[in-house]
Amino acid sequence: MGSLSPSRYSRVTKRVPGYVYLVGVGPGEPDCVTQRVLDVLGQADVVLYDYLVHSSVLAHVPPQATVVCVGKQRGRHSQTQVQINTQMIAYAQDGHRVVRLKGGSPTVFGRGGEEMIALTEAGIAFELVPGVSSVFGVLERVGIPVTHRDCARSVAVVSGASAHQGEWRGRVPNADTLIAVMAVKNSAAFIQQVLADTDHTPDTPAAIIYKGTSAHEQVWVTTVGGMQAIASEVQSPALVVIGPVVRYREYCEGYRQGPLTGTRIVSLRPQSPVALPTTRGSWEAQWQADGADVVRYPVQDIHRIAAPMVPVDTADWVVFTSQIAVSCFVDWLREHRLDWRSVSGKVLAIGSATSAVLRAVGIQADGVAEQSDQEGVLDLFPQNMSGESVLFPCSERARPMLTDTVTQRGGQVVVLPVYTAVTQQRYTVPLYDGDCVVFTSAGTVAAFFEKHETVPDIVAWVWGERTKQALRGYFSGPIRLVEDMLNKQG
Fold first, then answer.
1. C-alpha angle with apex 199: 196 to 201, nearest 5 degrees?
2. Can you give the pLDDT at residue 275?
3. CA–CA dist 292, 267 (Å, integer)
4. Which of 75, 311, 332, 367 is in the most buried spot, having the most CB atoms within 10 Å?
5. Angle 395-347-396 (CA atoms, 0-180°, nearest 5)?
């Protein structure tokens, strides 16, 4: 990936060291985030994000970056727009690369235009990074076309902020498809103005979409005349659409349904400091394909360790206990100008995910432990290991179980710490009753409860018996093994 430079689109009369990216992350689900957004996030020094930004997007922020939630819920702003502008400018003036994260697209009811002006007046270079607009993306994800040749050749988008003290200010455009954001709170005034200014009638089809593309998504299909009764019970964020296109939802209703639709799964798996090779069929991808809203929430930061050179051509065995160990070991090889041809011995891995990453870098594991811990790998070793050597790329805090057991069997272990894990302190993710929280190791258990002293009524899923044992020290509720869940699904 090439370096990121200040945009040619910003017009400034003076130049300060830092610059800003005004970024749209789409309607909610992380799959709608563009590659450009991920590139920008990967080189951020500071991230200022809105409340509606999906938490999985923050998993792509570098460990050394400063992450600040600047709020922006209707009626509950943690910071005013003036304060956000001031903070954004101050960070840039200090020479930082600032990413301002917004839901949807940055200038579609996102105040990106105001921030552009503030940055230009402060002499700060910036770039607009567009996203999939929520006003269109949410409709399409629930199966409502924005336009249709037979009945909707025009579309207009209005903001509920046009209402003041129960009265609508200004006219509502007379478009075939009418979309309103932030309108449920002032739905009575909005409906009255729609009937006064447009050709729509009380019988015109309408829909209200709450938290579109999330696990909490709800869709009500009604008419303009029946909309008020529903809107009075709906909280923000919600989108309103009026027009004959709403009828077409019946052709798509249910097409996104799966066994996990409506389930929010929070994965605590750490983010690797080295890009993992793309692998298909990962457990997170499988859950998402089954309809779940998968939230990436790495509670640990992983840091590469500049490990010294050790002989890799004399080992009889090479053991990988995690995907991160594979990626960091490959990076270590490159650092020492080596590659897999330098590695001798049989390769052993824990679990299908680790073996999949090995395959992605061109290595077929000679053995894969079904049990997701060091004990599982030990079952693949012979009982008599006299004279045999094991290379063990691992975490700095890896348990001594493997080393002790191999030594007892007469073998020798060369421990190669290639990474370390520390509790991630940049941000927390809100949790809700019914969330399925996936603990991937004993380390993620400790880090999670360091960050969350109290938790709602969650469902705990764990990888491996040792993780389960560690969780028992903090959590008294039911605990399920991820391996069992995947076997039932598969």
1. 75
2. 63
3. 12
4. 332
5. 10
Reading the block at residue 304, the tokens are: 């590469």
| DSSP class per residue in 9-56 | T---SS--S-EEEEEE-BSSSGGG--HHHHHHHTT-SEEEE-TTS-HH
Q: 36: which 2 tokens?
A: 């450009």
CB-based contacts of 432, cutoff 8 Å, min separation 6: 264, 456
Whether residue 278 is predicted with pLDDT greater than 80 in this model: the reply is no
**Alpha-carbon distance 251 to 248, whole Å?**
6
Q: Using one digit for the tens of pLDDT, what is the confidence trace for 292-334? A: 999 999 999 999 998 899 989 999 999 999 889 999 999 999 9
Catalytic residue from among 14, 39, 50, 290: 50
CA 101-104-107 angle, to 5 degrees, is 80
Mean pLDDT, the chain, as a whole number?
A: 88
- 346 catalytic? Reply is no
Pairing status of strand 46-49 against strand 317-320? unpaired
State the pLDDT at residue 17: 76
pLDDT of residue 1: 42
Catalytic residue among 45, 72, 176, 301: 72
| Alpha-carbon gap, residue 10 to 345, rounded angstroms | 56
Cα separation, 333 vs 341, whole angstroms = 10
Least confident of 10-19, 60-69, 130-139, 254-263: 10-19
Q: Is the pLDDT of residue 268 over 80?
A: yes
Q: Using CA atoms, how far apart are residues 335 and 333, in angstroms rounded to an integer?
A: 5
pTM exceeds 0.85 for this model: no
284 contacts 485 by C-beta, under 8 angstroms:
no
Q: Tell me if residue 50 is catalytic.
A: yes
pLDDT of 74 > 60? The answer is: no
Instruction: Copy the structure tokens of residue 411.
Output: 């073998």
Q: How far apart are CA 123 and CA 93, in angstroms?
A: 9
Per the CB < 8 A criterion, the answer to whether 210 and 235 are in contact is yes
Asked if residue 237 has a cis previous peptide bond (ω within 30° of 0), the answer is yes
